[in-house]
Design brief:
The protein folds into 2 domains: 82 residues, Winged helix-like DNA-binding domain superfamily/Winged helix DNA-binding domain (Arc Repressor Mutant, subunit A, Orthogonal Bundle); 131 residues, Elongation Factor Tu (Ef-tu), domain 3, CATH 2.40.30.30. The chain is built from 8 helices and 12 strands. The protein has a 6-stranded antiparallel β-barrel with strand order 4-5-11-10-9-12. A 3-stranded antiparallel sheet has the order 1-3-2. Strand 10 and strand 11 form a beta hairpin. The radius of gyration is 21 Å and the shape is elongated.
Length: 223
């Protein structure tokens, strides 16, 4: 995405397109960008072609919403600016409510390719299973989006046993501030952006005496 499109996307976000659909006429956008109406209209078309916005033509004009990919681009720049202008935080806190999944975590953590990478890159052999946390607050959901924009520790896609296993981004973490573990952002998952999965060398439910519905705080280490 070139500089012109980036600032156009940024302006749409300022107009409210980050949170949902907003009325964005090419004339109104042109006034804000200090360009011609034709230029503003072309930039909207280019952003749509790149999959960064969705446009809906209405009787009154057009509504514009920034897509998930567009939001990722904004977060990436945000993280870059934080690195320039702020002291990099050592950790971020994220809190979620425990819920039971369908047992997929136990299976995937036990896959040899993942297990080997966890040992090499995280420094521990994970207990066979994940702790699923549902993020309830706006702050926690935004923190997860922040993690999406950080580099993290990457386990690339690989093949094993005739199957392809997807990319995973990992962050070292302390569960309840005391137990070593890692937060996983899994590329192929049926969970939404309000869920994180946590692994540890110990059985977290038993070690911390946790039950579904209880809240757990995780301190994510940014490297």
């Amino acid at each position: 995405m070139n500089e012109e499109l980036w600032f156009t996307l940024f302006e749409i976000a300022l107009m409210g397109g980050y949170e949902g659909a907003v009325d964005v006429s090419s004339t109104r956008l042109a006034d804000r960008l200090k360009v011609s109406q034709q230029t503003a209209a072309r930039r909207l078309q280019d952003l749509e072609k790149e999959g960064l916005i969705i446009r809906e033509i209405t009787a009154k004009g057009q509504n514009v919403r920034i897509t998930k990919e567009g939001v990722k681009r904004l977060w990436k720049v945000y993280v870059g600016l934080k690195k320039i202008f702020e002291e990099k935080p050592q950790t971020v806190r994220i809190r979620g409510e425990i819920f039971s999944g369908m047992g997929e975590g136990r299976y995937y953590v036990s896959v040899e390719g993942y297990r080997r990478c966890f040992e090499e890159k995280l420094g521990f052999t994970p207990y066979p299973g994940t702790l699923n946390l549902k993020l309830k607050s706006y702050h926690d959901v935004q923190t997860r989006k922040l993690l999406e924009a950080y580099p993290g520790i990457i386990i690339e896609e690989f093949e094993e046993g005739g199957r392809t296993f997807g990319r995973v981004k990992c962050f070292k973490a302390l569960i309840e501030g005391k137990i070593e573990g890692s937060v996983l952002l899994i590329n192929r998952t049926h969970y939404g952006e309000d869920v994180i999965e946590v692994i540890s060398p110990v059985f977290l439910r038993e070690t911390l005496n946790l039950k579904d519905g209880e809240n757990v705080t995780v301190y994510v280490i940014l490297e």
